[in-house]
Amino acid sequence: MKVLQILFTICLLLTGHSVIAQELNTTKLDRYFDALEENNKFMGSVAVSRGGELIYKRTVGYSDVESSVKANENTKYRIGSISKTFTTILVFKAIEEGKLELDQTIKSFFPKVKHADKITIENLLNHRSGIHSFTNDESYLEWSTEARSRKEMIKIIVDGGSDFAPDTKAEYSNSNFVLLTYILEDIYGRSYSALVKEYVADPLQLKQTYVGEELDTSKGESKSYWYKRGWELASVTDMTVPVGAGAIVSTPADLVVFSDALFSGKLISKKSLEKMMSLKDGFGMGLFTVPFGERTAYGHTGGIDGFGSVFSYFPEDNVSFAMVYNGLNYEFNAISIAVLSAVFDQPYDIPEFTIYDISSVDLEIYTGVYGSEQIPLKITILKEDQGLTAQATGQSAFPLEPVDEHIFSFDPAGVVLEFNPGEKTIVLKQRGMEFQFSKE
């Protein structure tokens, strides 16, 4: 649902070179995840299939830190916006059954939505409706933890208005898929939960996949966490808010089965699948493309509370990959790259982590507000809980970990800050880019 953005939009592009896939070195990949787990960098689960056969799965960390409950292969995670792929499949099932049409407008369903007479089902699916995404509002996190009725959600969406004229450009909007959820419930006369079960979960025997309700650890559902010098429990979105935009619970093992079935034509027709995979301004319908070297995968990412997720399918190799986390203190994209590198026999390193002792350092020498002539961004450095936090313009504060003298990092976004206290400057490094900041 709401993706954490630190300083710059996190890139989804993966790097690598195409070669013939070799047998997967599971021992090295296990060591990679061991390193992440031992250094509190990742809590979650991963699965990979080739030719419909599971070739790797691994789960690390805790599903419930407070009760010291270790996660296992049956631990269920909230998968956030991967739910949109499920919702899109249901829409195409409705189209195949003659209950909907792609070029049908939403006026008969939501007459109060601005431009409802021009917005089509297709516009909702490929994010070209112009409908404002309610998750972009600053107040969203304040009300999203409470149950919301359909009437309340529609009012929130209607009141949000339109950000641009329909079909003039593409812009990601969770509001689109909440409305699609209600349309599906109207035309079928059944709940979204029942539709997911009937058309996807039951046919594929996905026993760990369903629409979430109140988070229930007794059912093997995981809590989620932020890392702030230790795992801290994240807020819990009420699932009546995201519904078909982000309310599904699953496991990576179920998600690779789902992926294999979708792209082999077991859920919708070939014609419908081609529509889903057809891109316009970078958006498919419930799908995006993710390049890895010379390969191109189709899939989706997700994020809700402290959970994050990704699934992707590589058609030429018949490989499905899925990963979900409930706690992250590292760059998620880097973990994906490592897994796919292992799958496609590419080199990757097992990371080494060091913590620099700053117990005797006067942290006040780093604090202050820093500005840059290169980019319109300010960074505020504060001393907090025996450490430092940074906050960039318009973003949430995040903890900095000391890695060397005057050098701090925030691994989830791949950010490194190199301080020069004498000159009162910072060099910000992120994915090969460098920016100079000076204290104001």
Describe this structure in words.
Residues 1-21 form the signal peptide. Keywords: Hydrolase, Signal. InterPro entries: AmpC-like, Beta-lactam-related, Beta-lactam/transpept-like. This is Serine hydrolase domain-containing protein. There is one protein chain. The protein is an alpha+beta fold and 440 residues long. The protein has two domains: 26-343, Beta-lactamase (3-Layer(aba) Sandwich), CATH 3.40.710.10; 363-439, Lipocalin, CATH 2.40.128.50. The chain is 24% helix and 26% strand. The protein has helices spanning 26-38, 83-96, 121-125, 140-143, 150-160, 174-188, 192-204, 252-263, 270-277, 332-343, and strands at 42-50, 53-60, 62-64, 69-70, 77-78, 210-211, 225-227, 231-233, 248-250, 288-292, 295-304, 307-314, 319-328, 368-371, 378-384, 387-392, 398-404, 407-410, 415-420, 425-430, 433-439. It has an eight-stranded antiparallel barrel with strand order 14-15-16-17-18-19-20-21. A six-stranded antiparallel β-sheet has the order 2-1-13-12-11-10, sandwiched between helices. Strands 5-9-6 form a three-stranded antiparallel β-sheet. A hairpin with a 4-residue loop joins strand 3 and strand 4. Helix 2 crosses helix 6, helix 2 (83-96) packs across helix 7 (192-204) and helix 5 (150-160) crosses helix 6 (174-188). The protein starts with 25 loop residues before the first helix and ends with a strand. 43% of the residues are buried.
